[in-house]
């Protein structure tokens, strides 16, 4: 109801603020008997943490995870798994009058209007540090999916005007842009660095591919698999949309070209992006989403303070000139959570499953 | 859990199949004391029903609504409002071997894979007749929103290659395309009719604008207003994506141009599309979504039957060559449901509201 | 959220008022492929309907059910099953000033305080006619349970001061009191008829036994099987409590006698009533609950009207002098819903189930 | 879905095992702006912790709470409040073959059957240490209720055969039995100590009174206030039933005596226990529940191990001979959570509240 939980059977609740004592997650609904170690979680957290290259923020956050519950002798017990990352450097620095300012592009204004109070330190709850909990739970989901040979791969498809074309999957985790096109990598990187030099930021487009999903996942009529994925992805900071399969370009298609024909050997195309009527077809599920340029920039901008006075603001500190690369593991985590949940929900659909 | 319900406090559950006895909705959570008559509902249902012009299907479905509960002496009582439309023409026609075929672009295959059984008459549950329940409940939501001067307007922005540019709000309901540009209307219509002549169908893009929303709606971090709207819209048949504000084009922007500055008189731009951190800013909420070309076409296509044999299929009958115009009232209904629910959820956020 | 739904995966939403057009239920989450006919439902509705004997109200309500959705060619399709009973005799009789009176023991006062408006005809939503929807959905649940040889049996254990002792299961449905003790039947019946002659009503105690449940049902820590059953039963009109196994008498026991010992052949006693830590042990689940004397009586009582004036009221019309016998099928329905839901929820608990 | 969450708007999720790193709770839905300090929580935790007197276990657990999120500058921010108690003494002692035994009366057997694995250290998740999270969240709820002058008082009404009669509210927290009858206190205490001397345990009955609740709380038809309270209380370890108002004794009453008459100055009696039709009347809400004798006893009992072999077991260690006194603050916590949630849910019931 208050928006800090996600999922129905495999359900997470995240908590924590950027500069509070900790950020974390409670994962409820994980089956008992899954081997789970802190390393499984840490591996994914390391993919999202800052300080990984010159195009991400140089802030060095170790983000070490601790499992507080739900695991016994190296296995899950079926009870809630609470995972916590204690925040370092939460010493009370002087926030000056930043605490009264609403930074453009940030959630400062809206949190204040909603709650009448806000934790202004580093964005508080609206900080992207909140996604640590998502990634931690997503790591568990990924482990479950690996048991069913389902693989979720995200990568950066476009940075500013530079579009990737080739899809070299192995290249993705070997470059800090997380693009899949080794020929366009340098151009993308330079695009980001140029913005960084100006104290500015740039946007990107991320694509996610889910392979190995069986037909039948997703619930009609509201909880369609694509609708649940849309909600999951749009719940990420900085994401402004989503499209599946042919996406917005479907406007240029006719039904006769867009309908995916079926042969005895399977579908002949995948314009639909892996679902029909909101239910998985068994093909790859493919979606893309735009990531806005990071809101924290070094260029002065006009705003107001909480008393309504006109002010100028610059977001000091060290920031990502482009957040798209770091969104990739978070998007994968969200997609993993959705797929695991769908698999669990799908257990009670046929009378043969019940009896 | 099974996907037929939507909303948290203002919550609907739809039921019914295309050719079963009835389609309908149970709306739970409507405040007591709202004046409500069947006319209020019928008005919106008439906007979505077929047979309205030469560019929609000529099937004539009266779609008369009956209120079965929750209203007493012309007012809601706070108990569930059940609204039903009995299906006409559900006589058992001969479905020949269509009943064993999976029509491309339809949900035939996926429903069969999920449930092992399907009501093949007119698409059964996956028919767009299911949206009748949504529109009926949405009509109640609209009535509630009118009490707060919140207005939701949808229109067709693009048909195939023809983009609308002007925004003449009064024109929308006066043309069957539901476009807002009277100069482009004829061109859009012709685009549709040409496809119709070929037995084919075309796609479109719909835009929705929500005006009058107060700041503070939407819940961090998963139930962001834009995430909930995304889920609502992606739960509609034929919708393949969504974007807010600047949307996918945000990839071409820098932070310094994309951040919406704030003056003492309000925001100076609305690239964000009305939310920051997933919470409404008080500006217009603006989103667009692509509607795929209708799957039912008269052009033969390759498919399989449920025994795995290769087959050819043509969707006989009378169909919409373009569903985008009829999606408009349904999208408005879904947006209305989301906004009403958000308003209700937002009641318990400040200690001053509680005590 | 508004209290008209029950269950998580196997979930029902009831709607309808006593004298509105209809009462009914939408059942979501029923597996596809279950054979289901209106007769299956009608059979259970006939057990709860009035007019069955001299100790129930002589009102004759046929209560014929119609299935509006979710069943195709005699089988469920996995989509919502809407079942409706249209109300007869809803002609607008003169309610005189009853409409402004709060009848003692009824929900008139509380509904008015909550909603500021109420449907005063026959209790409106608070009428026990609402339970028709529960019984209809419960009939589907019972059918599912029969596939797993789970049997739920309710009976009247006590009427006023008359306690049943023998448990003759076959006798239950052969006597209008629904007691299981043929030797005490006449005494119980006379107790009721004596109250009826005075225009008064009497209370009773009902016991329910659930046999054939596997170990492992129920979720720690809040959704214990006994907690969910308690909620289900306390949600029935006129029920004032519940106890499991040894129940309140546990206060007189020591741990050394109350703990149920276990042998290689099973538990040696069942003081717990079939659950430990809220999870089923595989033994019979046994609970009892008190049913208050019906609130509608012919003896004048003091009350107020909605303007705060002191008034005297007599509930005219034909009423049950004792509702316990008619509560039996409704309690069985509620228990059936809980058990089916628990079975479905229990599908995702072990990693071996998932992979 | 997995049973570790409770409440709808004011919603808690508890986590943690008896001998794991920590137990705790995430509270979501607390309004922003409530003054909250760790002392507020600690005060209630101190009421439930062991080692308080000779009739509770001498284990000394400090149970110091830490707030990890959701509070900033001494006030709640509207974001999730995570509260944690780190477990002391979780050093890995030798559990010998206890780890393979199912202790009678405990949840060992059922957890093993459900999950195929269990944390056998001190009961793991089924330990009453889980209730620490409930009490912590309940302390926040109590603080909210105090703003509305709602007061919840629990006390021990009966120990074994010794019934309290007088109700001296001030006495409750001044005696370790938490009874309200100073004349019966010594007798109750002796009853407990005698069982303790035998290595045995005894049961009790607890009563809870909720004062100051406005009329209108609770939702028809399933989420009745009494049904929600029943679920809350039955979700506590060792509780075997509940009754409201006149409770089981209602079987001996006639409608003419049991119906609570109403005068212009209010109700003339409270047999109903504070609700009608599941909605609060504004009178005191009164309920009682039996607490079984603690399962951990020093008297040898027959059981089996997980291989099915017959075994004898004695629960070594220091245990409570009677848990009823320590259940009191936990029951108050659960009742507080239900009432706060009901108040929040009740915000959207009248059209005048909405517009």
Automatic annotation (TrEMBL), chains A, B, C, D:
GO terms for biological process: amino acid biosynthetic process; aromatic amino acid family biosynthetic process; chorismate biosynthetic process. GO terms for cellular component: cytosol. Keywords: Amino-acid biosynthesis, Aromatic amino acid biosynthesis, FAD, Flavoprotein, FMN, Lyase, NADP. CDD domains: Chorismate_synthase. Reduced FMN (FMNH(2)). It is an enzyme of class 4 (lyase). Residues 39-60 are annotated as: Disordered. Pfam families: Chorismate_synt. GO terms for molecular function: chorismate synthase activity; FMN binding. Its EC number is 4.2.3.5. Pathway: Metabolic intermediate biosynthesis; chorismate biosynthesis; chorismate from D-erythrose 4-phosphate and phosphoenolpyruvate: step 7/7. NADP(+) binds at residue 48. Homotetramer. Belongs to the chorismate synthase family. This is Chorismate synthase. The lineage of its organism: Bacteria, Pseudomonadati, Deferribacterota, Deferribacteres, Deferribacterales. The gene is aroC.
């Amino acid at each position: 109801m208050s928006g800090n939980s996600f999922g129905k059977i495999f359900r997470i609740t995240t908590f924590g603020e950027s500069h509070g004592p900790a950020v974390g997650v409670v994962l409820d609904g994980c089956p008992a008997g899954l081997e789970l170690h802190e390393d499984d979680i840490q591996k994914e957290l390391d993919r999202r943490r800052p300080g990984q290259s010159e195009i991400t923020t140089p802030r060095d956050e170790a983000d070490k995870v601790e499992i507080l519950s739900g695991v016994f002798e190296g296995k899950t017990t079926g009870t809630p798994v609470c995972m916590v990352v204690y925040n370092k450097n939460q010493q009370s620095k002087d926030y000056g009058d930043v605490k009264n300012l609403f930074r453009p592009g940030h959630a400062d204004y809206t949190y204040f209007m909603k709650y009448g109070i806000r934790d202004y330190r580093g964005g508080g709850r609206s900080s992207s540090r909140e996604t640590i909990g998502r990634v931690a739970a997503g790591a568990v989901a990924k482990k479950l999916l690996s048991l069913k040979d389902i693989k979720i791969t995200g990568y950066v498809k476009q940075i500013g005007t530079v579009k990737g074309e080739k899809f070299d999957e192995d290249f993705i985790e070997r470059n800090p842009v997380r693009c899949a096109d080794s020929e366009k990598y340098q151009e993308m990187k330079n695009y980001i660095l140029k913005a960084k030099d100006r104290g500015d930021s740039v946007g990107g487009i991320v694509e996610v591919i889910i392979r190995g999903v069986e037909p039948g996942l997703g619930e009609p009529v509201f909880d369609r698999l694509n609708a649940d994925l849309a909600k999951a992805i749009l719940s990420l900071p900085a994401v402004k949309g989503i499209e599946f399969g042919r996406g917005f370009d479907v406007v240029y298609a006719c039904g006769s070209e867009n309908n995916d024909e079926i042969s005895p050997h399977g579908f002949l195309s995948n314009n639909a992006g892996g679902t029909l009527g909101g239910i998985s077809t068994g093909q790859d599920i493919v979606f893309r989403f735009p990531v806005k340029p990071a809101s924290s920039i070094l260029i002065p901008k006009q705003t107001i303070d909480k008393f309504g006075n006109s002010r100028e603001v610059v977001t000091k500190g060290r920031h990502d000139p482009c957040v798209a690369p770091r969104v990739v593991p978070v998007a994968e985590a969200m997609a993993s959570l959705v797929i695991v949940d769908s698999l669990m929900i799908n257990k009670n659909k046929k009378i043969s499953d019940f009896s």
